[in-house]
Predict the 3D structure of the following.
Amino acid sequence: MKTIFIQEPGEIGIFEKERPIPKKGEALLRVKYAGICGSDVATYAGNQPFATYPRIPGHEFSAEIIEIEENSQGLKPGMVVTANPYFNCGKCYSCQRGYLNCCEDNQTMGVQRDGAFSEYITMPIDRIVYGRGLDEKILALIEPFSIGYHAINRGDIQAGDHVLVIGAGPIGIFAMLSAKLKGAKVYIADLLEERLSLAKKLGAHEAIDVSKEDLGERVRRITNGNGMDVCVEAVGLGSTFLSCIEQVCFAGKVILVGNGKQDTKFNHSILLKKELNVFGSRNSLHDFEPLIDLLMNDKIKIDQMITHIFELEEATDAFEALKHNDGSMAKVLVKF
């Protein structure tokens, strides 16, 4: 079979390898579509803080079951599925308390262990989620959608809250959509016009181009000088984290979902002065099925998130294009 392989930062190619053989408790899956996450691009570029090399990337995917043993989930060959790509140890303090997404030894497909960018993969049966007839391309978006969805659930956002999302990449837009599902009035800020245009099409109350106007002044006008009830950081930079602290109201909430390698220096007394609630958000284990429900019941549409589809043979071009993304590429899928 063909597989996409990152040997080291900046070195990616398509190689042949043996098709995997499922072990007891595993299924053999034929990958249909796989999304290129920002973390995959970061692994390629050498900016992913948790990646090890060499590595097969990918953790957002849809696939067809080829081989599977009899199981309690009723999964059978021919079904189109997705899967949870986070492998927890089951032994650490977090796992013992039920916080499986916060496993101290978490291994994410495509980061600490090989991922889904192969024609065939094996997966533990208990991690497989039936797609219930959802379009194969949309099913490949469930994992990234779950990241934004989990982040918003962390912050317990209420109907009528003023929410600012900083960063209109895919995760930021998925967080925006998730906050809208809560009944919040959601604003989104970015430097790239095309990202903001997509966010506006998908329902952002206002899109703020911070390359053209001062974010603080705009927030003061929107909130009558009070600040946002909730700020979501979806970039992964120190400067955008500090911007969230600045733009959120006193006794407000800051949700961190962006991932990066930069250190951030600031006077922590501002957290005390404003008595802020700061939430880190990591992975998502229990949101796949609720999101499939929402999409199956037409509670929300995310088709416009898919801006590009590359054939497997073009996958290396897709990674290179995303490395230099000008904002015109949102969710990019590789068709297997």
Summary: The chain has two domains: 2-141+302-335, 153-280. Residues 233 and 256 are 5 Å apart (CA to CA). The radius of gyration is 20 Å.
